[in-house]
Structures are given as C-alpha cells and as structure tokens.
Specification:
The protein has 407 residues and is mostly beta strands. The chain is built from one helix and 36 strands. The radius of gyration is 19 Å and the shape is globular.
Length: 407
C-alpha cells in the first residue's frame, strides 16, 4: 500500500491553495430538522449531512448552493459518519438499536441492527469497516461495508467514544464507567484493555505518531481537575497530562502535532504539545461544547452555548481568539478544509450556521488523492455529540484534523 503523507500533500501544493484571506464571519443559516446534534461533510459529493435527533431524519445540504433535502432515519439519531471512498453515510440510531446506511448517490437507505443504544461511530475507509459503540450492552458492532454483515465485540462498561488508526488497523473505545480503553485489532477482533483516568469521555488518534489521547472528565462539579491519558499505540503504555475541569471533547492537529482538549467545567481549552506533552491553557468562555480543526491554516473552532451561542476561533500559532455570534445554541461543529467552511449544528435553533470568509465556496472537484486531503479513515467519524442521555456533554475525537490517507 502507498501512504500519501502530509509532506506529500504539501508538496503537491493542494493544502496551501485557497486559504482564507479574511476573518471569519457568519455567512448564512440553514434550516434543518429538530435538534441537530451531529454533522459531517462528504467530500465525495460536497454535501453536508446533519443528524436531527428529535425529528428522526437527516438534512442533506449542498455545500455550494445550500439547497437541502431530507432523508428519514431511525429513532433518535445520535452520531453520523461518512466513508468518502464508497460514498456511504452511516447514522447511529440510539433508540432503536440500529445504523441507517445512506447511499450518497441515490439517497436510498438500508438498516443494520446493532447492540443496545449505539452512540458513536468510526469508519476505516481502507478496510471498509464501520465500528459502532453500543452504550448499554458494553459492545462494539463491526459492520462490513461491502455487505452490511456484522460481528459483535465485547468491551467494558458504557462505551461512549470511539476512534481508530487506519495505519495500524486498531480501534480505541473509551469505556465511561470502567475507566478503561478497549483496543480492538481490526483484522482479528481481538481486544486488549488499557487503564486510563476517571470517566473517559473522548478519544482521539494521532496516526503519524501512533499516539492515542483520552479525555478523563471526572464528574462535573467534582473537586478535582481532569486529565488526558496518552497511550503509546505500539506498547499500550501510558502517560498522564493535566487538563482543566471536565475535559469532554478532543481534536488532534497532525500538521502541528498539537492536541486540543475542551474543558467544559472551566471554560478553557488545554493545548498539548504532542512532542513534549507540555500544555498551555486558552480561555474560551463558559459552556464550551465541541471542537474541530482546519489543519493547514492551523485554526481551531470551539462551539459555545453561552448567551444563546457563539463560535470561538483559536489561532493555532498564537493562541489568540476571536468570536462569531451564532443564534440557537451551537453544539456540534465540523470543518470542510476543501473550502474552509465551518458548520455548526444549532440545537435549539434547528439550523446549521455556515462560517467562513466572504469569498464563494469552491466548486466540486474530481475524486483523487487531493480530494481526501483532510481525510483518513474515520476522519469525520469521531463526534459523539450526546453519548449518554444523562450526560449532555460528550465526545469529539480526531475530527477534521487528519492529513494523510492510506490507499
């Protein structure tokens, strides 16, 4: 297999084209279904898919024209992910124990049974496998994307977040009630268990360094601060890095080898240097939600529901922040690095906001190595916006950050 790495992509000149030249602004707001909780761009079609939890459907938004369509799915969709190689979209339906598979060309659907309460998805586009964390029966359903057949893999108690490394074909499952991460071998489905901190809420992978980051939230309102456990993917040995209070979302920027942990309890983001594990703290205001990264401009986006909502933009080089006001309690966030648009799912606004510079989005381009610049397997698949019904804060793993593709 050939590995198109970050340096190769930069040498191709793809990553450096079309960088935003002006400050970010709210471009438009698009109506969706009720209570949108998760969203994912599809580079195969240049459509944005939005999971609407209360209306049991997915809104499809054309990223160029902003035209919309609606696709019915199962009950209480909680997470959504895309395989850009097969142009299929996967929706975890928490209340009816299923995944809806959407054909990106025809919008036709199929339904795959899972374990109880599927809450998080990760996709390996190299092997065409989809992994589903089932919260209430302590399992992961592995779906074969070719024929939708399944295998059930036992994990520890209350799996709430999932991420994978397609280079090693390893899957990492954060088990909320066991203070562990289950490591699954994607080829054999064999498992290993790694002890982490208390109340692991999020997991993210740096596939270039083969390190895995786990946000240990402890309990919101508790006396202690949270931590991030760093797992060495080669040995499963661990180190611990201090974070703020209740770290509940993570993102990794491969280009800068920096990790961002959103601390919901104290309104900050902990920035971890992946080479040294040193940290810095950036205030982002009370009630921060989820996080996404546009890696080449080195820009980080954090949603914030305080005073009806905003999007905090962090300059990765300087740590400086700016704020864009957004109506309707933005929570989930995704970036399409092909056009540098940022999308927020607004829970009470029943809408998606589009943030970017004033220049129009790029037209679609043919699918080739360049089309997958921001992608590895499971790139857009690590957002678990609700996780536990009792815990509204939840999980982001390596979202919109991975710059290499194994093909």
């Amino acid at each position: 297999m050939t590995r198109c790495t970050l340096l190769f992509l930069l040498a191709c000149g793809v990553a450096l084209t079309g960088l935003p030249a002006t400050s970010q602004t709210l471009l438009t707001t698009i109506a969706t279904g009720s209570h949108p909780v998760a969203l994912v761009p599809n580079p195969a079609s240049r459509n944005l898919y939005v999971a609407n939890q209360y209306s049991n459907n997915v809104t499809v938004i054309d990223e160029t024209t902003y035209a919309t369509a609606t696709i019915p799915v199962g009950s209480y969709p909680t997470d959504i992910a895309v395989n850009p190689v097969t142009n299929k979209i996967y929706v975890a339906n928490q209340n009816d124990n299923s995944v809806t598979v959407i054909d990106g060309v025809t919008s036709s659907t199929a339904v795959v049974a899972t374990g109880r309460s599927p809450v998080a998805l990760a996709i390996n586009s190299v092997t065409n496998q989809i992994f589903v964390a089932n919260y209430f029966d302590s399992s992961v359903t592995a779906i074969n994307g070719s024929d939708d057949s399944t295998v059930t893999i036992a994990v520890d108690s209350y799996p709430t977040a999932i991420a994978l490394n397609s280079s090693t074909n390893k899957i990492y499952v954060a088990n909320l009630n066991s203070d562990t991460v289950t490591v699954i071998d994607g080829a054999t489905c064999n498992t290993a268990t790694v002890a982490v901190g208390s109340f692991p809420k999020a997991v993210a992978v740096n596939s270039l360094t083969n390190k895995i980051y786990v946000a240990n939230a402890t309990y919101l309102g508790g006396s202690g601060t949270g931590t991030v456990t760093v797992i060495d993917g080669s040995t499963n040995s661990t180190t611990v890095v201090p974070a703020g209070i209740y770290p509940s979302a993570l993102a990794v920027n491969l280009a800068a080898n920096q990790i961002y942990a959103v601390n919901a309890g104290d309104g900050t983001v902990t920035v971890i240097d992946g080479a040294t594990d040193s940290t810095q703290t950036i205030p982002v205001g009370s009630s921060p939600g989820l996080v996404a990264i546009d890696p080449v401009p080195d820009t980080i986006y954090v949603t914030n529901s305080l005073r009806n909502g905003s999007l905090i933009t962090i300059d990765g080089a300087t740590g400086s922040t700016t704020t864009v006001g957004i109506f309707g309690n933005p929570y989930a966030v995704a970036v399409d690095p092909a056009n540098h648009r940022v999308y927020t799912a607004n829970l009470t606004g029943n809408s998606v906001s589009v943030i970017g510079s004033a220049e129009p989005p790029r037209p679609p381009r043919p699918l080739d190595c360049n089309s997958f610049l921001p992608l590895r397997a499971g790139l857009w698949t690590h957002v678990n916006p609700t996780g536990n019904l009792a815990v509204r804060r939840s999980v982001v793993a390596a979202s919109a950050t991975l710059l290499s593709l194994t093909i």
